[in-house]
Amino acid sequence: QVQLVESGGGLVQPGGSLTLSCAASGSFFSIYGMGWYRQAIGKDRSLVAAISDGSGTNYADSVKGRFTISRGNAKNTVHLQMNSLKPEDTAVYYCRGHIYRDSRDVVGSDYWGKGTPVTVSS
User: If 0-12 CB within 10 Å is exposed, 13-18 middle and 19+ buried, where does residue 16 land?
Assistant: First the structure.
């Protein structure tokens, strides 16, 4: 059973920083892309940042220059460094991974974590 588990959320003041981490565990062959999404109350879930297996990155316009996504050395972890946080960054942050279960799996599947809440407030 593949699982993605997020950590690092919490309460932070405007202008502050947080680092989110996500680790994939269980039995799988490889992970291609990983990413962070967020969902604020009353809004749809949307992409925050994504990173491919080759370290190519993609960011939502609203976080460019403030957030940085990175993969761990073991490639089964992904981190999101969030700086200059704003109240509008308040949301539940979800980790996603496109995972191949074994060497015969040529399509892969998206797996999601359960989310970690981030609240930016004074």
Answer: middle
Contact 79, 72 (CB under 8 A): yes
Place of tokens 């990155």: 57
Which residue shows structure tokens 């680092």? 19
C-alpha torsion angle, residues 122, 38, 43, 113 (rounded to 10): -120
Predicted confidence band of residue 8 (pLDDT cuts 50, 70, 90): very high
Report the alpha-carbon angle 88-94-95, nearest 5: 130
At residue 75, the pLDDT reads: 80
